[in-house]
Amino acid sequence: MDRLKHSGFYKLKFFVTPEEFKGVWELFEPKHAQFHLTNHDRTKHDQHQVVEAYKTFYQYFTAQEKPNYYPFFVYSISFAAGNESSGFFVRNEGISFPYHGQWAEDELPYVMLSLPKGFQINLEDEKGKYYIYEDIREHRPLTYAFFDEIANDMKKITKPLRFSAYAADALLEQKPPVRISANAANDMMNSWMFKKYKLVMKGKQ
After folding, report:
1. Regarding beta strands 9-15 and 179-180, do their DSSP bridges make them parallel or antiparallel, or are they unpaired?
2. pTM score, whole prediction
3. 140: which residues sit within 8 A by CB, 6+ positions away?
C-alpha cells in the first residue's frame, strides 16, 4: 500500500492587519475552538489572547524602527465541525529574499494555516499492524469545508504578495506563494525592513 498517498498539507499563507485577522478568526467562535501554544505545558489561550498575540507579531514587522524582541505566533487549534472533532495548525514563517548577491539576514513575515491532506487508517494483516492515509475530504468533509471557508474569506481581502528586492545591482520581482491585504501592504512599505533592504512593493514606487 502507498502510505505517502494523500501526504502533505493544505496550506493558507497570509499577512493581514490585526483587525482583518480578527474578522476572519471570528469564524472559529461557533466551532468551540481551543487554541494551545506548542510549549511543554500546551498553554491554552482564548480568542482574544490569540488576536493579541497576532497583533504583537504584526507590529514587530510593520514598525518603523526594529523592535528589540522577536515574536512567535504558533498554535495548535482543536474544534468541532458538526460531529467531527478535528484541528488545524497555525504558525509564523518567513520569506527569504536576495540582497546584493546573498540572502538578507531578515525574512518577510507571513502566517501559515495548515490542514493535513491525509487521514490515518490503522490496519492489520498477517504481517502485522500498519497504516495508510486516505483523503481527509472523505473522512472529515466538514473540517475541509471549514478550512475552505477560512481560505475563501482570506482571499476576499488579500491579493498575491509581489515585491522587488536587490538580487545583485538590479531590482528583481519576488513572487512568494503568500497573500497580503492592501492595508497590510501599506503598513509593510513603511516598515524598518523595507527601509533597511530598499524593498519595493509592487504598484508602489
Report:
1. parallel
2. 0.90
3. 81, 84, 86, 119
